[in-house]
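G., the chain you wanted modeled:
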Amino acid sequence: MTKESTIQVKVKLFASLRIRRFKNAQLEFPQGTSIGDGLNHLGISERILGLALVNGQRVPLDQPLRDGDTLAVFPLVAGG
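Predicted structure as tokens:
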């Protein structure tokens, strides 16, 4: 894969999503990878996803990631 066909994305995971994963990482994805595809790559399914933000904004999961984006991912939170 050439550099032109990949993007660099900073990924921040929060709360239980860090278990057996990481807190912050700089990851490389193929150009055109959607947020949902990136989450699938990390083993994060929509059923446990609470919120995904790109550069601090809530966006649809089918939106493509861009080089230099920061993806912050939060799990569902149960309260009582």
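DSSP finds one helix and five strands in the chain.

Shout if anything looks off.
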